[in-house]
Each structure stands twice: as structure tokens, then as C-alpha cells.
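TASK: fixed-backbone design
INPUT:
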């Protein structure tokens, strides 16, 4: 090879710029950011994968079923009212706020197959305006208007027309804007409790005696409860949540049962509070396939984020029972023991004030005007 064909290699001069090395702190920052990006990516991947396992309900396809009316026993002492003489007015307006997220949480009592009734009806609220997490129980025996069907207990709305009818019922009677719902049945409720490794619930002597001798706890081997705090598994927690014939804190009937529903939800909430972010991520594959919902993935991510954000500043869970004290009467309609809101207007005002708080006057000062007459 001739000298002229050889490529000249430039000499390195001290005057040439040298490649600058990153300081140690910068490398650490980059490493941490990269690790966080990987963790977030994995977490979102896990979330997205398991979201696909949720039974996302298309409410438009739900078919109406034959109306169901309870046939309650032992109610002969209750005054009977002709249903045609009960006039329940409706909400002309619905309270809404961009600072309030309302998720309807229901437990389905589906015994014997087919669409059952909602044994538990609660509204979980994230109020960013007030920085509060709230839980409202609507008693299943509350007598309300059910759009497209006869007036009935509110727990019949889902059975008669599906979730779309229950949502319309809450909208019509209470003037509450619901952003989505989550539905579980008895089996999935038990599995949720099991996924949490059980919950701690305090029992009184009469509750223990009842649960240990009845089929509310379906597995006989689980009828081993004692007075005081019990670490309950799913089967035991379900039995506890269904009790209505044993008083609790001076409450009886459906009032006692909804109080137990809130007790279980508070225990679940406390259990989640005790878990780290990584532990919660690890639970996603167990929990998400157990529920039915109409909330899409983007909204679900947003609602979870908003809930965690509020929880970080105020972890207290506030609760309300509807109908509220002093605004109802227990009576008999069509052989059913029902809780008749009296007046419905008083219940609506209390419910909307509790859920929306300071956000109510900001965006909907009119509210719902509802009255009940007989």
C-alpha cells in the first residue's frame, strides 16, 4: 500500500476538549429516576393486564325481570298503608361537583342463580374540596320510587331492572350524581376478605351466640367466634355483615345490618391503610377479577389517584346512614316491612350535605327539592 493511500490518524492534543464525566450525585439521580420509571411501568402494566380481567358491565343490555316483593313475617303489629296513598316526589335537579367523586358500591344477594337483590348499597365518596373520604349507607328496606317499576324497597331496583335501574333510582330519589359502580356477590366478597388476609371485627356476646349457631356462617368449621376482637376470614365476615336480627349499638333490623356493613367496610379500609404501595400493587391481580364495574381504565386510575391523595392528608373515614335519624318511619306495605322516609326532603338535604359538603354551594346552590306526602 502506498503512503498516500494510508489514512492519517490525528494526534491527540492537550488542547482538544475532553468528554466530561457526570458527577456521582447526577448518576445517583439518573439511577433513581430510571428505577422509578421501571417500577411505574411494571405497576401500570400489572394494572392494565388485570383491568382486562374485570367484568366490565354494559348496562344497556340488562333485561327487566319480573317485579319482586318481599313477603315478610312477624310484621302484623305494623300499621299497613295502601301503596296508592303514598306519594313520593322526585328530585328535579342532581347535585354535581368536579371536586367530588361518587362510586356506588353494592353487594348482590344472588341465591339460587339469576340476578339477585342488592343486600348492601353504599356510596363511597372522595371529596377533594373538603379533603375527606366518606361512606353513605342506604338501607335496603328504604321505600322509594323505582323508575319503570312499582314503588318498592330500594334493594329490588337492581333485581327488577339491573344496575341501570338502581342508578336511576338513586338519581331520582336522592339527587346524587354517581360516577360509576362496583358490584360484588357473596362469593367474591369472601374472596376479597381472603385476599386481605382477613379483617378484625369486635363482637358482642349476643352476636357471637347468633353467628356460632346459625347458617349465616355457612361453613360449620368457621363457627368458632368469641366475644371481643375476632380476626375474621371471608366466610365469617360475610355472615357478620348479613346479621339483621341481633341489635348492634342500640340499632335493630336493617339499621343494625347497615351499621355492620359500614363496620366491615371500615375494617377493609383500615387493612388497606396498613399496606405499603408495593403490597397494594401485589394485591391487584387478586382483587380486580372479583368485581363488576362500569368504570373505564382511565377513570379508575384517576379515581384511585384522587383517593390516595386525599387519604395522605386525612385518613379518617366518615360515615352516614340513610334514612337519617328522625326522618323515617317503619310501616307495612304489600306484606313488606319498609322504612318510609319521612320526610324524603330532610333525608336528601342531609345526604347531599354529607357527600358534597362545601362543594355543594359552590356549584349547585339550588340542590334537590323533594317532599313526601300521604
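OUTPUT:
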Amino acid at each position: 500500500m502506498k503512503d498516500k493511500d494510508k489514512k492519517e490518524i490525528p494526534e491527540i492534543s492537550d488542547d482538544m476538549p475532553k468528554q466530561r464525566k457526570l458527577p456521582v450525585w447526577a448518576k445517583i439521580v439518573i439511577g433513581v429516576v430510571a428505577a422509578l420509571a421501571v417500577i411505574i411501568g411494571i405497576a401500570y402494566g400489572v394494572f392494565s393486564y388485570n383491568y382486562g380481567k374485570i367484568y366490565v358491565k354494559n348496562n344497556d343490555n340488562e333485561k327487566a325481570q319480573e317485579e319482586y316483593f318481599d313477603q315478610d313475617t312477624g310484621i302484623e303489629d305494623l300499621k299497613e298503608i295502601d301503596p296508592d296513598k303514598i306519594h313520593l316526589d322526585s328530585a328535579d335537579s342532581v347535585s354535581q361537583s368536579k371536586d367530588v367523586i361518587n362510586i356506588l358500591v353494592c353487594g348482590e344477594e344472588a341465591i339460587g342463580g339469576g340476578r339477585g337483590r342488592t343486600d348492601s348499597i353504599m356510596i363511597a365518596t372522595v371529596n377533594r374540596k373538603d379533603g375527606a373520604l366518606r361512606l353513605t349507607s342506604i338501607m335496603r328496606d328504604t321505600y322509594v320510587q323505582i323508575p319503570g317499576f312499582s314503588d318498592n324497597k330500594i334493594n329490588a331496583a337492581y333485581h327488577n331492572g339491573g344496575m341501570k335501574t338502581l342508578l336511576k333510582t338513586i338519581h331520582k330519589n336522592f339527587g346524587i350524581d354517581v360516577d360509576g359502580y362496583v358490584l360484588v356477590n357473596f362469593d367474591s366478597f369472601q374472596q376479597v376478605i381472603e385476599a386481605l388476609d382477613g379483617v378484625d371485627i369486635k363482637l358482642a356476646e349476643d352476636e357471637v351466640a347468633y353467628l356460632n349457631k346459625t347458617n349465616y356462617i355457612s361453613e360449620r368449621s368457621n363457627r368458632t367466634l368469641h366475644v371481643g376482637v375476632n380476626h375474621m376470614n371471608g366466610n365469617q365476615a360475610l355472615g357478620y355483615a348479613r346479621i339483621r336480627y341481633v341489635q348492634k349499638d342500640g340499632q335493630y333490623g336493617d339499621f343494625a345490618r347497615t351499621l355492620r356493613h359500614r363496620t366491615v367496610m371500615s375494617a377493609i379500609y383500615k387493612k388497606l391503610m396498613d399496606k405499603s404501595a408495593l403490597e397494594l400493587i401485589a394485591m391487584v391481580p387478586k382483587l380486580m377479577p372479583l368485581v363488576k364495574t362500569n368504570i373505564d381504565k382511565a377513570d379508575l386510575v384517576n379515581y384511585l389517584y384522587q383517593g390516595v391523595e386525599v387519604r395522605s392528608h386525612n385518613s379518617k373515614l366518615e360515615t352516614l346512614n340513610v334514612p337519617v335519624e328522625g326522618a323515617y318511619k317503619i310501616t307495612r306495605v304489600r306484606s313488606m316491612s319498609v322504612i318510609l322516609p319521612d320526610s324524603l326532603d330532610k333525608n336528601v338535604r342531609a345526604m347531599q350535605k354529607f357527600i358534597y359538603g362545601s362543594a355543594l354551594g359552590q356549584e349547585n346552590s339550588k340542590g334537590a327539592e323533594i317532599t313526601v306526602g300521604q
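COMMENT: The radius of gyration is 27 Å.
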